[in-house]
Task: inverse folding
């Protein structure tokens, strides 16, 4: 394998007007995406009381979304669809499907219906990150991708923050059903500007030649593909533990009423978003000034996940204000990691393999969404407290740091030839 060693000393850092319009809409879609994922955790205690569910059943509902979400990507179905059709319309169809599933949840009256709608939600959202990767890898240069990915990722963090804040306040006033109706129906308005401004370049609008798309075998033969997937799994366990069980933890163990949970619970996610945007901007500046993408991207990922283990003292500190401060610090650290996560993948995969690589990585990584909610529910039922659940989440974060720093190879494009990947 030969390595690409040249990096421009100084590169333009300004996004064009077209790039900004597309990027803002992608950020909004990510924000809505994650509000929809968070709805169940915000309303968890209310749904649990109304439907008489155990913590284990509640964990199963949280996991249902991730089961279909991960399966659609691990099967490469999402990546195939993104690579074979106009990626703008693929994203639009997925958006319509998941928003409709969210709205219909408000009418559900039994466990099995909510479970089925969560599966449908996962199918709709499965095309999002493969779509983002194809768009960014095709339309945005390397020294813009850190910031672009960070802004999109900030949407995934602001989404849960707003979901917990607004959702918690709304559920406490009008009930959980109205919350689902309003969110799912209102989200569909996003489709109007997206239909007008979606990217139309040849690389995102035309059907790709199957002969030019690297095979699944070629991607899976790359060590870095596996370690980015394992690393994402570890980082996602931490993240999905927070978005699925933090509201319930604040209510059950900290004994916060719904309104106080909403006011306290949204701040850590906002901290992740702010940290992510700043870290993405900083990493791009370092690379634009001649820094090695390998050193910069991997350093941000490794340092961020390592310090995210500050999560453990959160559950041990009796004072709620100090606990919130530690939780916010842990989340700031997590934002440092998440800012460079997908920039690493897009640099490795390149435009032709971005959809499939992201589909595999995100599908594998989101199996953590199946494990984290259900395992946490089981642990809380067995132990009667959240301490061990916090320790497990921190352990996964530390393992993820090792995956990115020591497992992923140089962050340089892979040249796929004859089913075998080589570094350019």
Result:
């Amino acid at each position: 394998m030969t390595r690409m060693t040249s990096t421009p000393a100084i590169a333009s850092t300004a996004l064009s007007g077209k790039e900004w319009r597309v990027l803002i809409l992608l950020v909004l879609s990510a924000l809505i995406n994650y509000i929809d994922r968070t709805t169940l955790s915000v309303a968890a205690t209310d749904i649990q009381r109304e439907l008489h569910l155990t913590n284990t059943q509640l964990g199963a509902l949280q996991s249902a979304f991730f089961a279909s979400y991960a399966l659609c990507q691990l099967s490469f179905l999402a990546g195939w669809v993104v690579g074979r059709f106009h990626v703008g319309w693929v994203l639009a169809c997925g958006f319509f499907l998941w928003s409709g599933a969210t709205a219909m949840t408000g009418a559900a009256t039994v466990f099995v219906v909510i479970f089925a709608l969560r599966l449908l939600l996962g199918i709709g959202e499965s095309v999002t990150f493969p779509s983002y990767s194809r768009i960014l890898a095709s339309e945005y240069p390397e020294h813009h991708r850190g910031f672009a990915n960070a802004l999109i990722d900030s949407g995934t963090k602001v989404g849960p923050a707003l979901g917990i804040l607004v959702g918690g306040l709304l559920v406490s006033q009008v009930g959980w059903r109205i919350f689902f109706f309003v969110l799912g129906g209102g989200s569909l308005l996003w489709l109007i500007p997206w239909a007008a401004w979606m990217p139309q370049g040849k690389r995102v609008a035309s059907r790709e030649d199957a002969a030019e798309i690297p095979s699944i075998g070629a991607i899976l033969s790359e060590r870095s593909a596996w370690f980015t997937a394992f690393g994402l799994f570890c980082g996602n366990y931490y993240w999905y533990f927070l978005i699925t069980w933090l509201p319930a933890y604040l209510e059950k163990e900290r004994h916060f009423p719904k309104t106080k949970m909403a006011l306290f619970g949204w701040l850590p996610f906002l901290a992740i978003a702010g940290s992510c945007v700043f870290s993405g901007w900083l990493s791009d500046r370092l690379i634009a000034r001649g820094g090695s993408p390998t050193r910069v991207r991997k350093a941000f990922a490794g340092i961020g996940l390592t310090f995210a283990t500050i999560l453990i003292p959160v559950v041990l500190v009796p004072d709620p204000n100090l606990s919130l401060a530690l939780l916010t610090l842990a989340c700031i650290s997590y934002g440092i990691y998440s800012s460079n996560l997908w920039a690493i993948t897009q640099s490795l995969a390149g435009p032709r393999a971005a959809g499939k690589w992201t589909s595999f990585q995100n599908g594998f990584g989101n199996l953590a969404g199946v494990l984290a909610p259900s395992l946490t529910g089981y642990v809380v039922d067995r132990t009667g407290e959240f301490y061990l659940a916090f320790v497990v989440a921190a352990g996964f974060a530390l393992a993820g740091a090792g995956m990115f720093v020591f497992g992923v190879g140089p962050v340089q494009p892979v040249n796929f030839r004859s089913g075998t990947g080589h570094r350019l």
In short: The chain is about 80% helix and 0% strand. The chain has one domain: 17-423.
